[in-house]
Amino acid sequence: MTCLEVGCGSGDLAFDLARMVSPSGRVVATDIDRVKLDLARADAQAQGLHNIEFQFGDITQDEQKSEFDLVHARFVLTHLPKPDTALAKMRQALRPGGIAVVEDIDFRGYFCHPECAACERFVELYMRAVQRRGGDPNIGPRLPGLLKAAGFDSVQMNLVQPAAMSGEIKLLTPITMESIADAVIAEGLASNDEISLIVEELYAFANSPETIMSAPRVIEAWGWRQA
């Protein structure tokens, strides 16, 4: 298969696709972050993946040739003011009979046990920051409808939600809080001192063996371009 990975970031999923379609398949991976693209190219070279090409590209702006059997995007649509435009471009990029697969979050489904005020504040700040910048932090349940509206057929979906008592899943929460700190401060949603305290409390909660913490709910949806 010939595959397009939209918003590839550091390339992890593009690498997986390249292995799945090799030796005769091909992957084109696009992103709007040139630094990440350079890092992904170097990583692909180090892994000996020669059937993958990294390109600068904006799925909401660029015209697409109908050349791909599969188009995939994970955690991209949530950040876009007009996700329907991106899906129309994804459909345009497919050959007739091709499939689009999108995965995105429903942040309302975040949970932890026992209750944690820092976690509740983190969820609030994340959602408000995304909304202030024109995105939808709870876009997941909208995906099947958006695919249908974009002209995809035989749309299906699945739901997954990682949760854990230890390890990377729990650490994802404080790490994410750290990564969005600048955006939260820029939007005037919290002070640097408050964020530092939230991060400290989240790490303490995540590192406790007595607690449970989830990631957001993730909706997986897919559909075909029939003609």
Report what the structure shows.
By secondary structure, the protein is α/β, with parallel strands linked by helices. It has one domain: Vaccinia Virus protein VP39 (Rossmann fold), CATH 3.40.50. The chain is 40% helix and 26% strand. It is built from eight helices and ten strands. The protein has helices spanning 12-21, 34-46, 83-93, 117-132, 143-149, 168-179, 181-186, 192-206, and strands at residues 2-6, 26-31, 52-56, 68-74, 94-106, 112-113, 153-160, 163-164, 212-214, 217-224. The strands form two sheets. The protein has a seven-stranded mixed sheet. Strand 1 (2-6), helix 1 and strand 2 form a beta-alpha-beta unit. Helix 4 packs across helix 8 and helix 6 (168-179) packs antiparallel against helix 8 (192-206). The longest helix is centred in the middle third of the chain and has 16 residues, at 117-132. The two termini are 18 Å apart. The mean pLDDT is 97.
The CATH superfamily is Vaccinia Virus protein VP39
Q: What is the class in the CATH system?
A: Alpha Beta
Shape: globular
According to CATH, the fold-level topology is Rossmann fold
Helix content: 25-40%
| Pattern of helices and strands | EHEHEEHEEHHEEHHHEE
Distance between the termini: 18 Å
Give me the CATH architecture, please.
3-Layer(aba) Sandwich
Number of strands: 10
User: Which quaternary structure do these chains form?
Assistant: single chain
β-strand percent reads: 25-35%
**Structural class, judged by helices and strands?**
alpha/beta
Largest sheet, if any? Answer: 7 strands, mixed
